[in-house]
Amino acid sequence: MATVQKIASAFPKSLANKELVSKVSGGLSKLGFTNSNTLLATSLCCDEVSRPLEKDFGGVYGQNFSMGGLAGFPFGGATSFGAMASHIPDNGNCLVVFGPHVGVSSTGEVGTTEREGRASGGACCGSACAACNYVLDVHCGVCEAQNKTISNPEDVLDAQQAMVGNLLLPYAAALNDAEETMIELPMSLYKAQKEMMGNIISKAAPAVADPGKIAVVGGVQINTPPGQSDYFMPLQFDLFDNKGVKQDDLMWA
User: Fold this and answer.
1) What is the Cα–Cα distance from 163 to 96, expressed in whole angstroms?
2) Cis link prior to 211 (omega < 30° from 0)?
3) Alpha-carbon gap, residue 40 to 35, rounded angstroms
4) For 208, left (φ over 0), alpha (ψ -120 to 50), or beta?
């Protein structure tokens, strides 16, 4: 199958959603994380194709708290993390799942996928592709960087998209030089999001009450055509205490 073959070559060690959930929940259960004492928080794109991953994790941990915005960036920030922390069950923990998403079509094309009810496919992730075009135009001198102050974009109606573009700017050279830009794009987005999520946890972790722990799963969500399982390329599975200090790397071999 072209989709699965392309996923295997472009995003090695990716797992079908249910296999990912099984590995994560199995590992966390050994540390005392259960479906009754763990709050699931996600930072995934607004796109409807991102919801199956939340549903699959929700099958173990229940409803999720959403921190994510366009392209999967945790635009809820430290405020949303603090709010989430106040919802954790007494003496419990939280599991944070984050990352950008990318489509792989039935013909193996990366950066697009078929959608329910539509005769033709489309960009996936659309926000990421738009940001990539902007970043490459800036890099090649076609245009100048706009909305340079990430914390104060000029147009509130498109504040998140402005931020996605600005946060992707440091990866312009990598995108420009990539053999396959659509494969590099989610990897660059992940790096930007990992840094942002790390800063959020460093600032807001104390909102998690003792003796609560914070488990973080980060990677690239891979959307496939209708009727096929989505995949996830895990790039981070870490355990933090409520001071934001990393306690363990939980990633399997």
Assistant:
1) 22
2) yes
3) 9
4) beta
| Torsion angle, alpha carbons of 44, 99, 50, 34, to 10 | -80
CA-CA distance, 80 to 249, in Å (whole number)? 25
Read off the amino acid at residue 215.
A
**pLDDT, averaged in runs of 10, over the chain (253 residues):** 95 98 98 98 97 98 98 98 98 98 97 87 94 94 66 74 95 98 98 98 98 98 96 98 97 79
CA atoms within 13 A on the CB side of 18: 2
Rounded distance, CA 251 to CA 94, Å?
17
**Backbone φ, ψ for residue 175 (5° rounding):** -70, -40
Tokens of 99: 């990352």
**Euclidean distance between CA atoms 32 and 45, whole angstroms:** 29
Burial tier of 7 (Cβ tally within 10 Å: 0-12, 13-18, 19+): buried
Whole-number Å distance between alpha carbons of 236 and 102: 17
Distance of CA 164 to the CA centre of its chain: 13
Interatomic CA distance for residues 131 and 233, integer angstroms = 22
Q: Residue 72 corresponds to which tokens in the numbers above?
A: 């999967």
Read off the tokens for 221.
Answer: 């969500």
State the DSSP code for 104. B
Q: pTM of the full predicted structure?
A: 0.95
Alpha carbons 97 and 102: distance in angstroms, whole number: 16
For every residue of 189-243, DSSP letters joined together read HHHHHHHHHHHHHHHHGGGSPTT--EEEEEEEEEE--TTS--EEEEEEEEEE-TT
